[in-house]
Amino acid sequence: MSRRGPVKSAVPSNVVSPVRRCSRTACGRPAVATLTYVYADSTAVLGPLATYAEPHCYDLCAEHSERLTAPRGWEVVRLAIDPGPVRPSGDDLEALANAVREAARPQDRPSGGPGGERSAGRESRPTEVARRGHLRVLRSPDS
Questions:
Q1: pLDDT tens string 109-131
Q2: At a CB cut-off of 8 Å and minimum separation 6, what does 27 contact?
Q3: Which domain holds residue 53?
Q4: Given CA atoms 40, 45, 50, 53 in this order, what sign does their dihedral have?
Q5: Counted domains in the chain
Q6: Is residue 1, in this structure, part of any structural domain at all?
Q7: Residue 73 placed within a domain
């Protein structure tokens, strides 16, 4: 502690904001559009914010995307930008819930004699032969 109050760190925080920011210098507003140049066609394409930040694309805020101009001789193609934030749809949430239910189910293993034969009264189902993360390799009952 100093006489002037608590000492402040030069690095404000190690927490990084998950919101992508505008690529323009000194602009800290959230990005809403992605700008990509197609040099072969002399075209600048401005569209919805890309899912992932790409190294050769530029994220722009609403103000900078509206004021965008292209060099002389170039064409600007503006794709429709959805003004609302992207939120998971009902289908996404249902798919996630189904995946969790599937992962929680007990795994059926073939039972039988030493050779691994199935009992005659048992229904044939695919057998899990390998697993890598959340993916499973299944062998069909016919093989």
A1: 555 545 444 444 455 677 777 77
A2: 21, 61, 64
A3: 17-82
A4: positive
A5: 1
A6: no
A7: yes
The Cα 33–Cα 64 span in angstroms is 9
35-45 core/surface letters (b: 16 or more CB in 10 A; e: else):
bebeeeeeebb
Residue 78 domain-assigned (yes or no): yes
Q: Evaluate whether 31 touches 3 at the Cβ level (below 8 Å).
A: no
Contact 73, 42 (CB under 8 A): yes
pLDDT digits (tens, 9 = 90+) for 50-99: 888 888 899 999 999 999 999 899 999 999 876 555 566 667 777 777 88
Structure tokens at 140: 């069909």
14 pLDDT above the threshold of 60: no
The beta strand positions in 7-139, using DSSP E, are 33-38, 43-48, 58-60, 75-78, 127-132, 135-139
Residue among 135, 136, 113 at smallest CA distance from 126: 136
In a domain, 141, yes or no: no
90/92 Cα distance (integer angstroms): 5
> 3-state class of 132 per DSSP?
strand
> Does residue 116 come out as left (phi exceeding 0), alpha (psi in the -120 to 50 range) or beta?
left
